[in-house]
Design goal:
By secondary structure, the protein is mostly helical. It is built from 14 helices and no strands.
């Protein structure tokens, strides 16, 4: 089963859960998100339009005294903003209005709406505004990973040193192998190959556990880190060490096609170098 069908199924389970505990707005929200996975963002936006017309016809959700009801409506506005972002030609002005309203209603997860505001501004190429919104999201919840990564991506070209700072803070929040890899690659691009390799070796000595993995099930994580190490070493011309790293990646994940190809490419380069 692919990623979207999996997500649709999970949203369906969530809808059932919320219905059981009589949080009907959230149940309907989850059903629409399941629909989006199956039928696309355009269909979902229309369903969100109808739901919000019913829930908040006068746009006065901020005046509600029911905190749970207010938070639920905020989530629907933010979800519609996210769905608009997923449209090919979505109304970004509307998405910005939705996310801003969600952040102002009184939602206890306002950091999510602030992140969405940043995404919309990023799409509008208001990069300064995007960074400001992402920064506000981090201030509201420093443990929220997404805005750390978003700032790193926005500033990476113009200010790579600042990007490194946000990759570092992202790793502190959640040491995903993909983030560690991206930080190592950026360090290498900045001519700090020794630092990049040291980072990878440190993480390989005690690999982080990622979602879906348990203790003793770190193969995918380790393979990602070994592949990054192999790539950096190969770029440095240290082909024997690169081959060791690439083969270690294959050992951790025998069906990893990228790792298998890296081994073949490094062997080919080594043959050419000695010819």
């Amino acid at each position: 089963m692919g990623e979207l069908p999996d997500a649709a199924e999970n949203y369906g389970f969530a809808a059932e859960k919320y219905e059981l505990i009589q949080q009907l707005t959230l149940s309907r929200l989850m059903k629409i998100k399941a629909t989006q996975c199956k039928d696309g963002a355009d269909v979902a936006v229309k369903e969100f339009d109808a739901l919000l017309l019913e829930l908040d016809p006068e746009h006065k959700a901020a005046e509600l005294t029911d905190a749970k009801g207010k938070a639920a409506i905020a989530r629907v506005y933010n979800a519609r903003a996210q769905a608009i972002l997923d449209q090919e030609e979505g109304d970004l002005k509307k998405a910005l209005e939705d996310a801003t309203y969600a952040a102002q209603i009184g939602w206890d997860r306002s950091h999510i709406a602030l992140y969405t505001i940043g995404q919309v501004k990023d799409r509008l190429e208001d990069f300064g505004g995007a960074i400001e919104s992402y920064s506000k999201a981090i201030t509201a919840n420093p443990k929220y990973l997404d805005p750390h990564l978003a700032i790193a991506e926005v500033v990476k070209t113009e200010n790579p040193q600042r990007a490194l700072e946000f990759y570092t803070s992202a790793i502190e929040v959640h040491p995903r192998s993909s983030i560690i890899r991206d930080k190592a690659y950026l360090m290498s691009e900045l001519k700090d190959d020794a630092g990049a390799l040291a980072l990878l070796d440190t993480m390989l000595a005690d690999p982080p556990i990622e979602e879906g993995e348990g203790i003793g099930e770190k193969g995918s994580t380790e393979a990602t880190l070994y592949k990054a190490k192999a790539a950096i070493l190969a770029d440095l011309g240290r082909l024997e060490e690169a081959l060791v790293a690439a083969e270690a990646a294959v050992k951790k994940m025998p069906n990893d096609e990228e790792a298998i190809q890296m081994v073949a490419d490094i062997k080919s380069s080594s043959t050419e170098a000695t010819a």
